[in-house]
């Protein structure tokens, strides 16, 4: 029998799927995987009901014109720059195929990303034949920050692209304008692409994050997510904003994977984005998540944890000695993600966890009650 390709080694169950599976089996409170426990807004669901039965056939691979227009208006770009994808994960894979791989000389291009790193970046890099290069963020009592010197040392003549995630999963940190400007300047100096993963662009708790696209529009591809904005992570509607002129090539590769995102959901999101912006939905979403983040952070501190307060996303990181994530989910009834799962080339800071607060207040309170019981054993 022929063997499966070696890339299937990348198909092992992820830590997120494993923790969610164990949580379901054990009846645990799931603070591991980042999906909301609250329903999407009514205006989104109503838009979807109107679209089903009306917009049911393939859209153009580049996306429904109405959704491209809505994204462009929301982000203040041209519709011709927008490509609609099956969620942000597929957007990132389309960009991996577009921007890096084996170079003409046969050597693999290099893709740089910051560690702790969101789990899809490395396997997608390997799948297109490129090399992943990790650059660690600095962690201090003040939180997570960019180490620009370490980034400069990581750049080589083979560097083809850098992924910047702000707000940052898993840390919840937001890069400052000065940090992003330093990244943009470095990219221009060494002539590499920038991929700005901005799926949490509306989930921030202080100053609105700066979009890297505004500092280096000629080389930045921006990724966004309707699922993160509208509490509908299973809808799988995302987008890419490309530099001018690049959208047809990105859409051309996207057509060979999923062809198009689900057409009725594209239509629903096109309608919902404008309502979300003008109705104050995002303001309410931020207030709700801020309240839940404060509830979780205060409860963890009461249990002796060192909490690193996030500036965005719906995740926080905390140092909590004596907690093994596997034992916690199977014996304590709470699922979390050990931060070591987000490191590939560097050692992880010890005793660190990522916890999701996109859950109900009742779920967070129950998780804290169970965690207290687990620690008191």
Automatic annotation (TrEMBL):
The keyword Transferase applies. SUPFAM superfamilies: PLP-dependent transferases. The keyword Transferase applies. One of its GO terms (molecular function) is transaminase activity. Its cofactor is pyridoxal 5'-phosphate. It comes from the Bacteria. InterPro entries: Aminotransferase_I/II_large, Kynurenine-oxoglutarate_AT, PyrdxlP-dep_Trfase, PyrdxlP-dep_Trfase_major, PyrdxlP-dep_Trfase_small. Keywords: Aminotransferase, Pyridoxal phosphate, Transferase. Residues 29-371 form the Aminotransferase class I/classII large domain. Gene3D superfamilies: Aspartate Aminotransferase, domain 1, Type I PLP-dependent aspartate aminotransferase-like (Major domain). This is Pyridoxal phosphate-dependent aminotransferase. The lineage of its organism: Bacteria, Thermotogati, Deinococcota, Deinococci, Deinococcales.
